[in-house]
Design brief:
Pfam families: Pkinase, WD40. By secondary structure, this protein is an alpha+beta fold. It contains 20 helices and 41 strands. The strands form eleven sheets. Strands 1-2-3-4-6-5 form a six-stranded antiparallel β-sheet.
Length: 914
Amino acid sequence: MAGSTPPPVSGNAPAPLNAADPRKLGKYVITGRLGQGGMGTVFLGHSPDGDAVAIKVIKPELAERPEFRARFRREAESARRVRRFTTAAVLDADPDGPWPYLVTEYVEGPTLSKMVGRRGPLRPADLEQMALSVATALSAIHAAGIVHRDLTPANVLLSPVGPKVIDFGLARDFAGSGEFSRTAKHAIGTPGYMAPEQIMDSPVTSAADVFAWGAITVFAATGRQPFGEGRIEALLFRILYEPANIDGVPDELAPLVDAALRKNPAERPTAEELRISLMSGAALPAARLAASGPTAQEATSTDGKDGARRRRGHLFGRGRHQDGDEAVSGAPVSGAATSLLTPAPATTGAPPSPISAPPTSVGPAAPVSPVPRPVPAPSVAPGAPAGPIARSAGPRPPSLAPRSTTSTPPRSPAPSTPAPHPSAPPPATTPSPVPVSPAPAAPPRPQARPAGERAAAAVTAQVAPPARPAEEARPTGSGRGRRTVVLVAAGLVLLAAAVGLPLALTHGSGGSGGSSSVSPARAAQLSDTLAKAADTARPTDPARAARLSLAAYRISPTQAAASAMVASFAASSKVDLPGSPVAYTGVALTSDGRLGAATDAAGRVRLWNLAAATPALLADIATGDASAPTAPVFLPTGDLLTGGGIGHAWTLADPRAPRAISDVKPQATQPLQLALSGDGRLLVTAGQDRIIELWDLNNPAKPGWLGLKVTPGIITDIALSPDGRTLAVAGVDGTVSLWDLSDRRNPVERGSAVGHLGQVTAVAFLPGSKRIVTGGSDKTVRLWNITDLDAPRQLGEVTQGGSPVVNVAALDANLVVSSDASGSLLGWSVAAANPAESFSLGRGSTGLDLAVGGAGKMLLTAPAGGSSGAASLISTDPARLATVACANPANRIGETEWKSLIADLAYSDPCAGR
């Protein structure tokens, strides 16, 4: 019925706890999950008095760092100083425990994001209350010396007593020592609400929160973000170089929002100035309005409306001097970005304007004479927010240094014609030097570039900001002008690579074809960037990923490039080992990768020579046991152990005639599973019950029994750390129990890794002995930090697919593999802790047993679970995979594609000489 009150939007009701979640932290009882963010997980808890509280538990990978804990301690103290007007009060914190956490007041009510998503834009009165409450909260937060850094609609709760800002206790203490690491990980907030200086990796102050206030006010008023949506790199580009769309913001708030969304942090009002203006209805201080205010000519449009309302975020839009000349102010260039990415020059005859290589020294631009330029024609950037305002294809990159109040913003060098397609580059023109002073009446001609670079410009323009105007040329020793550039910082570079954009990587001047060599550091940088682009392209364009992977590895064999090679080419290296298909029961590889072994259900052991160009079957012998042998393991000496009804040690002095030299006779249970320490001196055996037994193998011909232990549940798999000090025992109860083997005659059970829903089917150690990877019947692969055996911490998890995980193995410290019951064999990157960037290593009809050898450069597989099939060998050696890759000409990157990505290194066929 018209005029009826809509039902209330549900608040922040907790979700049930996961199995791995804590049940109690300090004096607080945990009862549910409220959410999860970039810093950690938020739980609902209750104090001893029964009061509800919100407890944010920090992610383990952050808590591991002493410098983070120190900063967390400092910021928690700062957060307690924040006055409680419109914030969730910080009540308690524990920065020193195994689970660092922050306790705040529990605020009942939906988030602004949820409210607008379900109801649409706020009503005018509610909008003004929200704007005032958030500005008041920011004023209090800033007064305590804190920058929120991630103010979004999800961090504004609409409580019954009014809006409240949350999640500010984990912000940067900007009054502190400046220890905060200005890396992309910390600079990046939520993309649609980030300030330009966060993207540029420039110093972040309270002005970034003011920018976010403007953005969330637009969202609350209109239901959309001020810079639109779409691909991350396009969104960040618009934040940096395009005006915000504030159409739909009420006239009373529009001037404040417009000022808050200025690109230059020095020209934004403070939160306190916003609060005072909202409370009193008065305008902002004259200095704020004058910072980038319109000229008299622009102040009134043809329809008589306020020009500032129509310009919407005008600082780097269309401001100009009365005489039409632009004011230019220099700014320091962020050092973090100087060696990462230089914006690509525009094509000849088409904007954006050309741009030179970065200057050899970084600093403020020298004063130059302004140059008049024609008014540019507007264009619309792909994915830009709809609105009645004209869109610039990109103003010059913003200066993040304070701007003189006498300067008005420059015009955007927007194109009049679209950039050419890479397949049809424009003809080359004669290079023309850029004048320094005096300036010509007409705009300077762009410098010509080689055809390969011109062809790449249209592609790289998506990520490269437009050029500075020619009047910003600085004199050099030769008297020629060198244009300064503002580089997109590390955060944008990484995000651009993450979405698969080709990057124009330039460094130094170089020649038209690039230098024949670069420094090792630069080569590694180029290689890593190409490898990341390959990882991103792989799911949708595996052919391109293959070319980029091979090129990256040829430039420099970095860890990222090696991983990319494995992801792109390992599956194609698979070869089946000779021998009739059988039901295998286990596989093994020697540490040098020269020999492979497999046991089968018929009671036999097979050995293969893998050192030859073509693998050869060396032996196929019967063990003589009534029970089928299982779980072969190679000793460091090259000898072999097998399990089964009775375990055996085999000498392989002659691999064609293996000979049993001793028995591993169990005291309690059949040794169906074997685990060996890295030095080969400790053997642990387990069967399908709850018994583990330990053996001294200093002399494999005479294994010495050390003792046994009873585990809490039925064992499904075991793994021994490379250093032989920790045993991981997987069980049907969904846990992995950890045993301290410091005293090998008296193992001590410590903590348990709890998280899988259902049985843990597989466990393996990563190099270093401090991390394990597990697989489970719940179809997940999980990574754990077990540095503290009493309190193992899950680092991350991924879902393998639609089937239970059968086996897991670690290739090296950065790559793990897993097999599920459907036959899917996947690789996972764990370089960033959480398993990610999965890639296929092949698919069979059933799950696979796995063995890693050759220092992580070989993977041996065989059907698991009694299924008959062939054993197969997969190379994970990037050097060998390069040979595999070069056998197919399609994997070679061409010169045109090379030049579109790399400008400072001359093209080199990655398969030359092969």
